[in-house]
Amino acid sequence: MTIAMVTYFIIGAGKFVGEFLSLEPIYASLLMVVLAMIYTVASGLYGVVWTDVFQGIFIFLSLCIYQLWP
Among 31, 43, 64, 66, which residue's beta carbon has the most beta carbons within 10 A? Predict the structure, then answer.
């Protein structure tokens, strides 16, 4: 992942979260970065991997349900 992609994700997350929390996008971006850093430090790489596993399962099941929904 390049620095440009990470920057793009941070800016996008800031805009998205800023709308819901009525914050300026820069403050929402900083909030998201700080929360991600705290989560990574607190749980370590092991916690991040398990979060990715659960998110992958959720996405897969969501796609299956979407395909089977009448």
Answer: 31
